[in-house]
Amino acid sequence: MRLAYQPFLLAAVLALSACSNKGQSPEQLRVQAFAEVKAEIGEIVQDPGRVEELNVLVDRMSAAYSETYDNMREGKARLRELNSDYDVSREALDAELLKMRQITVNDYKEIIEIRSDLAELLTEDEWDRLQKVRSKALDAGIDSLQVI
Q1: DSSP per position, the chain
Q2: Model-level pTM?
């Protein structure tokens, strides 16, 4: 019986969290969240050289999310255009879907690679101390992709 309420609880939490950021687009929230990661890195990591390297990686990850969003939006527009063409072949639609899938897989691989690079530059303690802002930034990145 207890498990039956969990989907409703999750839906309520998601609805409330969606309302808590009024006036900001998912893109703005992503940028803000990644800026918070950079600020937290500056407070936690003592080595200025590593701080700079980590900030470059955070900027790369934020840009990778933005590029993924653009690629998904463009792919969806191309697919919509093809789908509206009554004479389009099944092969053309399949080819476009495969192309979109490969682009998305490559984009996600890049994001995962950057995350791995971040983990390699941080000590275990630093990684743990950054958990909250890292999670917020990743959630914001994913949310920015879901508005498509």
Answers
A1: -HHHHHHHHHHHHHHHHHHTTTT--HHHHHHHHHHHHHHHHHHH---HHHHHHHHHHHHHHHHHHHHHHHHHHHHHHHHHHHHH-TT--HHHHHHHHHHHHHHHHHHHHHHHHHHHHHHHHS-HHHHHHTHHHHHHHHHHHHHHHHT-
A2: 0.74
